[in-house]
Amino acid sequence: QVQFVESGGGLVQPGESLRLSCVASGFTFNIYKMSWYRQAPGKERELVAHISRNGETTTYADSVKGRFTISRDNAKNTVYLQMNSLKPEDTAVYYCKKTPGASWGQGTQVTVSS
User: Fold this and answer.
1) CB under 8 Å to 4, separation ≥6 — which residues?
2) How do residues 17-59 score in pLDDT, each as one tens digit?
3) Cα gap 108→21, rounded to integer Å
4) How crowded is residue 14: how many other Cβ atoms within 10 Å of its Cβ?
5) How many Cβ atoms sit within 10 Å of the Cβ of residue 101?
6) Among 46, 9, 30, 18, which Cα is nearest to 78's?
7) How remote is the C-alpha of 66 from its chain's centroid?
8) Which of 54, 55, 68, 98 is least enclosed, having the fewest CB within 10 Å?
9) In angstroms, rounded to a whole number, what is the distance separating the alpha carbons of residues 99 and 111?
10) CA gap 5, 83 in Å, rounded
């Protein structure tokens, strides 16, 4: 059974940083691309960042480019999202997902507020 357990969210002030983690299980992690998505209240879920199977290729939404960094550790079945210079508009529930795939985890809440 495919499972994702996201963690690392919290309440931070604008300009601060957070590092999210997502531990995956139930599939062969290193043969799948991985992505982070987020969903803000009242908005649709959106793609934040994407990483290739070996971690060499990454892509980002324009809204987070230069501030967020996605990475992965295939030995630990884990994908990370380092978020720097956080803004109030980054407030959302963050999820990881494999590509292709349809399963979602419970997500982790990130709130950026002064």
Assistant:
1) 22, 23, 24, 95, 96, 97, 103, 104, 105
2) 999 999 999 999 999 999 999 999 999 999 999 999 999 999 9
3) 9
4) 13
5) 15
6) 30
7) 15
8) 54
9) 26
10) 18
Residue whose entry in the numeric block shows the structure tokens 């030995």: 75
pLDDT top residue among 107 and 101? 107
Q: What is the 3-state secondary structure (H, E, C) of the chain?
A: CCEEEEECCEEECCCCCEEEEEEEECCCHHHCEEEEEEECCCCCCEEEEEECCCCCCEEECCCCCCCEEEEEECCCCEEEEEECCCCHHHCEEEEEEEECCCCCCCCEEEEECC
Checking if the pLDDT of 102 tops 90, the result is no
